[in-house]
Automatic annotation (TrEMBL):
PANTHER family in the cross-refs: ATP-DEPENDENT CLP PROTEASE, CLP R DOMAIN-CONTAINING PROTEIN
Single GO molecular function: ATP hydrolysis activity
Lineage: Eukaryota, Viridiplantae, Streptophyta, Embryophyta, Tracheophyta
GO annotation (BP), single: cellular response to heat
Residues passing through the membrane, by range: none
Domain UVR residue range list: 508-543
Protein name: Chaperone protein ClpC, chloroplastic
GO CC annotation, single: cytoplasm
Length: 858
């Protein structure tokens, strides 16, 4: 006896399976015949019995549908051939009559395996020791709703049994059903066994419980065969395509595709290329979100409507699902139908060539491969040819018509390097939609989103979605970002509409509390109180129902469904970007008008700079700014410590809500010549004029909704020289203005010598910061001292200072060359250090009130 530990590599949630092998493995009693030339079908015959020496496998920790991937892992080993079997189908060696050969399950599709797993689960749940035809039918019902069979329709009940054996085997009748399903697949020329074949096998068996139940509801083999499209007279010659692809033409016929508005030029170009005799393979090139897949859907809609040339009339468009995930490990692919049995070299090529052969024989297939660059290297493991090299000859000869779609970067990276593959595709560039086209697209999609969200969109909401997404969401493209806006806005409005009114929510909280009290009263056998609480509960529930009904009547009086307006779109844009784009309300208008005074209280003595900043914000907020330029761009020039950085922080905190939203760039990082490579693609002035910057990865950053503030110490020497003439301390108001204007003129001239004219000419304004007067220095000292007071309040200590102490701080802390920064150091030295020592010495404790003064020694 020996043990093997098997794990499923393709599922992160798969339980570990312990497989016990008993006895020596033998050979299956099965036969397989090769493929005959000219037959076009793989003939396989497997006897429904197995060798008595087939090893038994048991599985522990088997739970629900998770066992599906476990079984899948067991049926696809990498080394041990004898473990390549479905574990729970086999039992002990003395029950050979109920064995089912391994070869059959190799051909089972994922859905068919799931049916078997669910059948076993149903047998366990109902207490049966076997899997019969009725359990297989329940497995088909549980696997999905493809056949429109439900338990209610079947009206059949199985009695639960008390004892369940460890090993659940197949009854001879169930084995016969599996044999018939294999025969159905063989007759149809399918190399796989799917859930549809199992259903046909149940009907073909005819005598089992499942067949009788299906006949009770009036379903026969012919009707079911017609339903699944696989009856004995079925003419389906494209099982591979049907299994791996999605038929867009069929979806268009059924009205399941969204309408395609615009893009007529690109669709016409695609049709023109498809009409060529050779190299008739268009490739859509465009960034993500511009609508490449929509062009393929538009082509399908045109084919259905007959609005195409006769050369491609009647063709089908199949969306190939395989190439999307083929670069992953084979075991972890979602397309289990394709990888079933492709463990060995050459099997991938065989499957792909079957697909190509079906397309060639049909002559009416246009294969749409989204992310077409993934065919390069696909399936090239273990020295095999990749999909691109297999497809090249067919693409060149016109035997395979392929419509590809990819981005420009991926096309250059993967396809352009392969000149042979490149010349087989004809490029069709798909540009980003303009705002007007996007509005028409949104109007075309309006009905679909209204039905889905059960809301109504106003025309203003659609226009706002196109315009605001274009203006404020720069990292995505139209029409994708506008469609996402209306989608999320519809979800938001429906969510708000579905919530209980505020009054009803309060009553609901009260009901929950009453229920708890009632249950407590019952436990305490206080039934009188419980009855009173029950009456109160029923009364509150009646009130809640009345409020809800009233809300419904109001909604119905207002034409039913809630309405998505322009304000809802603006709300979503604010969620995404953090930029306030709503129209200025009365409250916000008052707040903006008070912004100047608020900033002046925080930034002392720099009224000119505050006025310039506020004026730029006013223009932007009412919509007067140039939409292609930043909100404003300034150079703050002046000596250190006069409030240049503080004003930028104050603006971020007041207008944008937090100082954290301010992005600081230290341009000293770009002083050296070699560091300029960090910023590429943006010649001088592009940020200020066009509002964009390209980084070293080729990503474009949008500056159109930003305030650019650049600080510089250029001109500090001029300001310091004027400061020696006691500017700001001894002159009156008019003299100070004259001196300040003279300083501005001198600093501007120095800036012109330092910066190039094309840079300075794109700035909105050059602002020279003043030096502080003594009164202004004292006001700054008050602000800094208040910060200390607030910190001490958290320690429950009340601190105040005298005017003499403030004068002492101003005398020691102000230096015309360094601005207000020495003032902070003076407060730390004269106040904070002393307070800290006294707190540590317990001379100052919680709840104390402290007054700081200057003694006779100063």
């Amino acid at each position: 006896m020996f043990y093997h530990k098997c794990t499923a590599n393709n599922s992160a949630i798969m339980p570990t399976v312990l497989v016990q092998s008993i006895g020596m493995p033998g050979l299956l009693s099965g036969q397989r015949y090769g493929q005959h030339k000219g037959s076009g079908k793989l003939r396989r015959s497997v006897k429904m019995m197995s060798s008595i020496q087939m090893p038994a496998l048991r599985m522990t920790n088997f739970s629900g549908l998770r066992a599906l991937n476990t079984l899948d892992g067991l049926s696809r080993p990498k080394q041990d051939f004898h473990f390549n079997t479905l574990s729970t189908i086999y039992s002990r060696r003395e029950r050979a009559s109920r064995y089912v050969p391994k070869a059959m399950f190799e051909a089972f599709t994922e859905k068919a395996i799931k049916v078997i797993v669910l059948a076993q689960e149903e047998a366990r749940r109902l207490g049966y020791n076997f899997v019969g035809t009725e359990q297989i039918l329940l497995g088909l019902i549980g696997e999905g709703r493809e056949w429109e069979l439900t338990l209610t329709m079947l009206a059949w009940k199985w009695k639960r049994r008390e004892f369940v054996a460890v090993d659940i085997l197949f009854t001879p009748r169930a084995k016969h059903v599996l044999a018939l399903s294999l025969e159905e697949a063989r007759q149809l020329g399918h190399y796989y066994i799917g859930s549809e074949h199992l259903l046909l096998g149940l009907l073909g068996e005819g005598e089992g419980v499942a067949a009788r139940v299906i006949r009770m509801v009036g379903e026969g083999a012919d009707s079911v065969g017609a339903t699944v499209g696989l009856g004995s007279s079925n003419n389906n010659k494209m099982p591979t395509l049907e299994e791996y692809g999605t038929n867009l033409t069929k979806l268009a016929e059924e009205g399941k595709l969204d309408p395609v508005v615009g893009r007529q030029q690109q669709i016409d170009r695609v049709i023109q290329i498809l009409g060529r005799r050779t190299k008739n393979n268009p490739c859509l090139i465009g960034e993500a979100g511009v609508g490449k897949t929509a062009i393929a859907e538009g082509l399908a809609l045109r084919i259905v409507n007959g609005d195409v040339p006769k050369t491609i009339e009647g063709k089908k468009i199949v969306l190939d699902k395989y190439f999307r995930g083929v670069l992953n490990d084979v075991i972890s692919l979602d397309m289990s139908l394709l990888v079933a049995g492709t463990k060995y070299r050459g099997e991938f090529e065989e499957r792909l060539k079957k697909l190509m052969e079906e397309i060639k024989q049909s002559g009416k297939i246009i294969l749409f491969i989204d992310e077409v660059h993934t065919i390069v290297g696909a399936g090239a493991g273990e020295g095999a040819m990749d999909a691109a090299n297999i497809l090249k000859p067919a693409l060149a000869r016109g035997e395979l018509q392929c419509l590809g779609a990819t981005t420009l970067d991926e096309y250059r990276k993967y396809i352009e390097k392969d000149s042979a593959l490149k010349r087989r595709f004809q490029l069709v560039k798909v540009p980003e939609a303009i705002v007007d086209e996007t509005i028409q697209i949104l109007k075309g999609l309006r009905q679909r989103y209204e039905i889905f969200h059960k809301v109504r969109y106003t025309d203003d909401a659609l226009v706002a979605a196109a315009q605001l997404s274009h203006q404020y969401i720069s990292d995505r493209l139209l029409p994708d970002k506008a469609i996402d806006l209306i989608d999320e806005a519809g979800s938001l409005v429906q969510f708000q509409h579905a919530q209980l009114p505020e009054e009803a929510r309060e009553l609901d909280k009260e009901v929950r509390q009453i229920v708890k009290e009632k249950e407590e009263s019952v436990r305490n056998q206080d039934f009188e109180k419980a009855g009173e609480l029950r009456d109160r509960e029923m009364d509150l529930k009646t009130q809640i129902s009345a409020i809800i009904e009233k809300g419904k009547e109001t909604s119905e009086a207002g034409d039913g469904d809630p309405i998505v307006t322009e304000v809802d779109i603006q709300h979503i844009v604010f969620f995404w970007t953090g930029i306030p784009v709503k129209k200025v309300s009365t409250d916000e208008s008052n707040r903006l008008l008070k912004m100047e005074k608020t900033l002046q209280k925080r930034v002392i003595g720099q009224d000119e700079a505050v006025k310039a900043i506020c004026s730029a914000i006013y223009r932007a907020r009412v919509g007067l700014k140039n939409p292609n330029r930043p909100i404003a761009s300034f150079i703050f020039s002046g000596p250190t410590g006069v409030g240049k950085s503080e004003l930028a922080k104050a603006l971020a905190a007041h207008y944008f809500g937090s100082e954290e939203v301010m992005i600081r760039l230290d341009m000293s990082e770009f002083m050296e010549r070699h560091t300029v490579s960090k910023l590429i693609g943006s010649p001088p002035g592009y940020i200020l004029e066009d509002g964009r910057l390209t980084d070293n990865r080729g990503m474009t950053v949008d500056f159109k909704n930003t305030v650019l503030i650049m600080t510089s110490n250029v001109g500090s020497s001029v300001i310091e020289k004027e400061g020696r003439r006691k500017i700001g301390f001894d002159l009156d108001y008019d003299e100070k203005d004259i001196s300040y204007n003279r300083i501005v003129s001198l600093v501007t001239e120095e800036l012109k010598q330092y910066f190039r004219p094309e840079f300075l000419n794109r700035l909105d304004e050059i602002i020279v910061f003043r030096q502080f007067t003594r009164l202004e220095v004292k006001q700054i000292a008050d602000i800094m001292l208040k910060e200390v007071f607030e910190r001490l309040k958290t320690l429950k200590i009340d601190l105040s200072v005298t005017e003499r102490f403030k004068e002492r701080v101003v005398d020691e802390g102000y230096d015309p060359s360094y601005g207000a920064r020495p003032l902070r150091r003076a407060i730390v030295r004269l106040l904070e250090d002393s307070i800290a020592k006294k707190i540590l010495a317990s001379e100052i404790k919680e709840g104390d009130s402290v007054i700081v003064d200057v003694d006779s020694d100063g």
